[in-house]
Amino acid sequence: MEKERSKLQGILQCKCPRCRQGDVFEKPAFSLNFAKTYRNCSVCNLKFERTMGFWWSAMYVSYAFTVAHLITVMVAINILTKERPALWVFFTAILGSFIFFVPAYFRYSRVIVLYFLGGTNYTTNPEVWEAQGE
Ligand SMILES: [Zn+2]
Fold first, then answer.
1. How far is the CA of 31 from the centre of ligand 1 (A)?
2. Residue 40: beta bridge partners?
3. Angle at Cα 108 formed by Cα 103 and Cα 111, nearest 5°?
4. DSSP 15
5. What angle do CA 32, 103, 122 make, to 5 degrees?
6. Residue 3 C-alpha to ligand 1 middle, in angstroms?
């Protein structure tokens, strides 16, 4: 039997919120199909898209990640440079660094929404899984 994961470990490793064993995403984060999400958990059969359009709510979390990224890069540029750099420096730094983080922001926004708004609680008891009808 696999060692139980904490909630934080489950989120960081993108595991199912109910059993914390099954993967949420089909492909690795750094692949072209990084967004491909399983329909159901391979272990407990939890349906990941809880309701129709459930993933739309992940956009708000993703937006928060984007704004935090933008502010962080702009503050870093202002700290690292003595004079105010040209506008293209900001754009290049923000876009260049943002592309690298897109898979992480996308995946973690979905996982965070799934954990906190998905309406499921962690349990290893298969009888509870059946009682929830999924
Ligand atoms: Zn599961």
1. 23
2. 47
3. 130
4. B
5. 115
6. 14
